[in-house]
Amino acid sequence: MRSILLTVLLLISSLLFAESKSVSMGDYTTCAVYHRMIAGSFRLEGGLQVMADLEAEKMDDFIERSKHAAAEEYGEALAEEYFLEEWRDVLAYMTDQINRNYENVSVLKGRYKKWCDRLGSSLTDGETKKQL
After folding, report:
1. Cα separation of 94 and 85, whole Å?
2. Residue 116 counted as domain residue
3. Residue 10 lies in a domain
4. Which residues contact residue 98 at a Cβ distance below 8 angstroms, ignoring those fewer than 6 apart?
5. Is residue 15 part of a domain?
């Protein structure tokens, strides 16, 4: 019984910690690149331009948040440089994950979709928009 109670308390505290953790420039950039990759996949499939445009809009939202977070973390003077460096690194990493083939984008969906959807839903709920 004691171990169950301890497990429940640890789970609750880890959830509280996870919810209170601030979102970094890297988090936003990762989701921006993810949506860019998904948009690219839709564009290559043909006939899915509307879906590609929706993904591009999500990407733009995450880029805006990422640049704002970069300015807060590193200052206005260095924000763009840090954002671009992060973008290049994440883009290269995701491109490697799909073996440079947009037909393999399902690999990224399995790794990033739920996390980026949760992060994106916090943006639409106004949680982060208040900061901007």
Report:
1. 14
2. yes
3. no
4. 37, 104, 105, 107, 108
5. no
Which among 68, 60, 58, 69 has a CA at the least distance from the CA of 22? 69
**Cα–Cα distance for residue pair 101/85, rounded to 1 Å:** 23
Residue 28 covered by a domain: yes
**Containing domain of residue 65, as a range?**
24-120
Question: Model confidence over 71-89: pLDDT tens digits?
Answer: 999 999 999 999 999 999 9
Q: What is the 3-state secondary structure (H, E, C) of the chain?
A: CHHHHHHHHHHHHHHHHHHHCCCCHHHHHHHHHHHHHHHHHHHHHCCCHHHHHHHHHHHHHHHHHHHHHHHHHHCHHHHHHHHHHHHHHHHHHHHHHCCCCHHHCHHHHHHHHHHHHHHHHHHHCCCCHHHC
- pTM comes to 0.77
Task: Read off the pLDDT of residues 3-41 as tens digits, 9 standing for 90 and up.
Answer: 454 344 444 544 444 444 688 999 999 999 999 999 999
Number of domains in the chain: 1
Q: Do 62 and 29 form a contact (C-beta atoms < 8 A)?
A: yes
